[in-house]
Amino acid sequence: MLQNDEEEVKKQFTEAIRSDMPDGVQPEFNHFIGLEDYSVNLIAFVSVSGSLGAITGKRLILPEMFFEAHAKHPFVAQDKRTVPIDVHYPSMEKDEVRYHLPAEFTLETTPQPTDVSWPSHAVLKAAADRKENLVILSRAAAFNFTLLPPDDYKDLHDFYQKVAAADQQQLVLTRAQVAKGN
């Protein structure tokens, strides 16, 4: 049940996703599908503009996982924990990003799949699929815990270290050589 009108929900959603965008990218919310029906998946359509990557000579460097470019990975900086960890609820995140490559660029290397697991607690899987000038990147992360004792912190810390490293991978495109006339 909505507690605000649809315009306020759109505004709050735009503010919430702004921090998930890579540097130089601005989101503009378009519309929702399924906002009124809790029994279906909520889909948000967002247009983005701006500069997505960095150009260095003949290369264009893009964030591999678009929505994780500024991810705040909890439990990475702190080595030890003496109090229980409460994450409030289990969660599942699924992202799919499609990069349509410009004709003058080719993918230098296809990103390697990622499979990070903390048995009975959490898992991260990421994969890339390439079809001509289209690169489809998918990421799924599942967290199946709510309250952990401090003794489990080392495993939690190790898992998040691996997730943070996986989320910072980049997509490197190479600009094709242009033939020069005489």
Question: Brief description of this entry?
Answer:
This protein is α+β, with helices and mostly antiparallel strands and 182 residues long. The chain has helices at 6-18, 153-167, and strands at 25-33, 43-50, 54-56, 59-63, 85-86, 91-100, 105-107, 114-118, 122-131, 134-143, 147-148, 170-175.
Overall pLDDT score: 85
Helix content: 10-25%
Distance between the termini: 68 Å
CATH architecture of the largest domain: Sandwich
Strand count, sense and closure of the main sheet? 4 strands, antiparallel
User: What is the approximate shape?
Assistant: globular
Q: And the CATH topology of the largest domain?
A: Jelly Rolls
Ranges where pLDDT stays below 50 over 5 or more residues in a row are: none
Radius of gyration: 20 Å
| Total number of strands | 12
What's the CATH C level of the largest domain? Mainly Beta
The fraction of residues assigned to DSSP E strands is: 35-45%
Structural summary, described in words:
The chain has 182 residues and is α+β, with helices and mostly antiparallel strands. 15% of the residues lie in helices and 40% in strands. The chain folds into two domains: 1-51, no CATH class; 53-175, Jelly Rolls (Sandwich). The chain has two helices and twelve strands.
What are its keywords?
2 domains, globular, 40% strand, four-stranded antiparallel β-sheet, Jelly Rolls, alpha+beta, single chain
